[in-house]
Amino acid sequence: MKRWFPYALIFLAIVGLTWQWQSDAPATQAKDSTQEFLDHRYQMHQVSMRQFDDSGNLIHRIDAQVATVGEQQTTIKQPRLISRSESANWSMSSKQAIATDSFTQLLLQGDVKVIEHSGATPLQIHTEQLQYFGEQRRLYSSLEVIIDDGEITLSGTGFEVDLTTQDYQILSDVKGTRRP
Q1: 13, 58, 141, 147: which has the fewest C-beta neighbours closer than 10 Å?
Q2: Which residues, at least 6 apart from 145, have a Cβ–Cβ distance to it below 8 Å?
Q3: Contact 102, 53 (CB under 8 A)
């Protein structure tokens, strides 16, 4: 019995200290860490990402100075987007972009420039805003646009571009000039 007495005292001391520590602890409220994360935004600097389709083909590459990630969307400052198809290479830039749907849809805003690089003279598109659909490789805008292929400059309101076939259509108020 004398051999167990010191161990019993140590056990009782530990139980007593634990009890006192638990009673002195301030009351805390359980937090859902997922909700706490969703309530905050975070920024990434010097962002570069690539996105691939189900077959492993590159849909696009996005490079940016700053990306602010939120719950529903990501705001990208000064994005440069590269999209390749079998017959063309496209680059796009703007002041900012709003990414949704896991970066497969982007709304490019402010001084938007699109350049197709496959021909001897690149096709250039200028507008203030456009919607990019990555998986379908399509562009759309309802705003004014200027399209220049080196020989002809077209302007109008609204446009659609198929990045795969390189077909484009200005939707209304079309005007054009041809260089001599």
Answers
A1: 13
A2: 125, 126, 127, 155, 156, 157, 158, 159, 170
A3: no
Which of 8-17, 45-54, 134-143 is predicted with the least confidence, judged by mean pLDDT? 8-17
Q: Which residues contact 122 (CB under 8 A, 6 or more apart)?
A: 115, 116, 150
Mean pLDDT, rounded, of the chain? 80
pLDDT given for residue 95 in this prediction? 95
Residues 6 or more apart whose CB falls under 8 angstroms from that of 109 comprise: 94, 95, 96, 97, 98, 128, 129
What sign does the CA torsion over 119, 121, 122, 123 have? negative
Residue whose token pair is 């109008």: 156
Neighbours of 29 (CB within 10 A): 4
Contact 173, 159 (CB under 8 A): no
**Are 129 and 108 spatial neighbours (Cβ–Cβ below 8 Å)?**
yes
Structure tokens of 119? 């021909």
Going through 70-180 in order, the beta strands assigned E by DSSP cover 74-77, 80-84, 89-93, 96-100, 105-116, 123-133, 138-148, 152-162, 167-178
CA dist., res. 157 & res. 168, Å (int): 13
